Amino acid sequence: MLRFFRQIRQKLLTENRTSKYLLYALGEILLVVIGILLALQIDTWNTEHKDRQKEKEYLRNLMEDLDTQQQQVNAQIEHEALMRSLCQKALKQLIAEPINFDSVNAYLTTVTRRTFVINDPTFQDLKSSGNILIIRDNSLRKKLLSFYQYLEYSALVIKTDNETSVASLRNFLNDNRVVNMNYTNTLDVAAGVDFSLEAVHIPWARSLQEELAKDKPLLLAVLNRVGARGRTSSVHLDLMNRLQLRIKDMKQEIDNYIGK
User: Fold this and answer.
1) From residue 255, how far is each of 135, 137, 149, 244 by CA, in Å?
2) Residue 98 neighbours by CB under 8 Å, 6+ apart
3) How far apart are CA 173 and CA 35, in angstroms?
4) Are residues 107 and 183 in contact, defined by beta-carbon separation less than 8 angstroms?
5) CA dihedral for 177, 179, 181, 182, sign (positive or negative)
6) Could you please report the per-residue DSSP string of 149-179?
7) By three-state DSSP, how is residue 194 classified?
8) Which residues contact 51 (CB under 8 A, 6 or more apart)?
9) 21 exposed, middle or buried (CB, 10 Å; 0-12, 13-18, 19+)?
């Protein structure tokens, strides 16, 4: 093809047909430009196609992450609801006359904490790789960022509470002989790990607990601590219920976008 065009140029120059040669040269340049533009357009289309495929893959992975996160939220809700219920039952026993310390032991020795786990591998990949911009819809990107900010905030609140108020309650109950931590054979933490020893009968433990009932200032402090622990679970439940709604909305947004 190039040889053919070269022959035409030589013929025109030989025949001294300069004007036609210039028109021909201009036409040849135009063809080259058109060819380059077409090649660029095809390359752009291929890149765009690959980006759209990658975008869909990211969004599908985000949906899977959200499904897993929903399971974590459900487990946290179940745990916090149980902890609040145990605290409510313990409060009723602590204000009873006389106090049933068997019930107090049964309720308060099972008040534990649960770590809330964030499941966001796809979102972290989007951020660290800079591929967050591959999601074309600006509104969807903003909603994703807002969702994961709230998710991190919720996890931080629960982590902070677990390390402060939740941990201090158990120390307070133990240090002030409110409960017999040896009361139960099984004491599970969030991961289901049994870290207790086999219970040993302590005949004089009950008398120490009964003395507590006579110390009204200390008993009031116990009531306040247990009540605060129950309210902590109420806060966590509110966070998780709000997160449930956000997950549902986020999944709907992604699903609608993929279906466009």
Assistant:
1) 13, 13, 21, 17
2) 213
3) 81
4) no
5) positive
6) HHHHHHHHHHHHHIIIIIHHHHHHHHHTT-S
7) strand
8) 134
9) middle
Residues 246, 150 contacting (CB under 8 angstroms): yes
The two three-digit tokens of residue 187, written as one number: 């004491």
Token pair 């120390």 is at which residue? 171
The verdict on pTM exceeding 0.85 is: no
pLDDT digits (tens, 9 = 90+) for 224-259: 999 999 999 999 999 999 999 999 999 999 999 987
Give Cα separations from 166 to 33, 81, 199 (angstroms): 72, 15, 23
Residue with tokens 């409110």: 178
Q: Where are the beta strands (DSSP E) in 51-140?
A: none
Q: 153: Cβ–Cβ under 8 A, 6 or more apart, which residues? A: none
Burial 207-217 (b: 16+ CB within 10 A, else e): eebeebbeeee
